[in-house]
Amino acid sequence: xxxxxxxxxxxxxxxxxxxxxxxxxxxxxxxxxxxxxxxxxxxxxxxxxxxxxxxxxxxxxxxxxxxxxxxxxxxxxxxxxxxxxxxxxxxxxxxxxxxxxxxxxxxxxxxxxxxxxxxxxxxxxxxxxxxxxxxxxxxxxxxxxxxxxxxxxxxxxxxxxxxxxxxxxxxxxxxxxxxxxxxxxxxxxxxxxxxxxxxxxxxxx
Length: 205
What we know:
By secondary structure, the chain is of the alpha+beta class. It is built from 5 helices and 10 strands; from the N terminus they run βαβββαβββαβαβαβ. The strands form 2 sheets. A 5-stranded antiparallel β-sheet has the order 1-10-4-3-2. α4 links the parallel β8 and β9. The radius of gyration is 20 Å and the shape is elongated.
């Protein structure tokens, strides 16, 4: 069985994407299945499109109606964490309401051995822990004690460390997981757009 490829499509481009799919693969039938819009083309190629923020789709099997349903919550958040930094944002719909980006220096690996290597590892772990604590402090301040949806990315272990903070327990993590480099403003802006996008699993025949 061929594994699907996942592409992120902005809602405004969903109609054109489906048209292009049909152009490449032949007449495509659309159905609504398991809360998603699914399509199968004449050559056997398929796709399954899911709304952002784990929203279930229950409308007609039409690309235009599906795209209209791809809306952002009134309030939601983004949390990106890596050892070298973090970015946290609270949004109202598609508008950035508040955000913070921070860089923290965490030393890289060393080839030294013995006690020197152990001291280096301890220092590196302490730096990483301080970076996660700073990220958690800003996330708690910006996201607050709100029961909101949160899209995350960066390094899985780093994000888990930050989300262990009890101040963030009301946040509900939803996909997609965002594989991002060390967060900067441009990285945060791109992550917001990816979070708003429709996730389409495609199998090309």
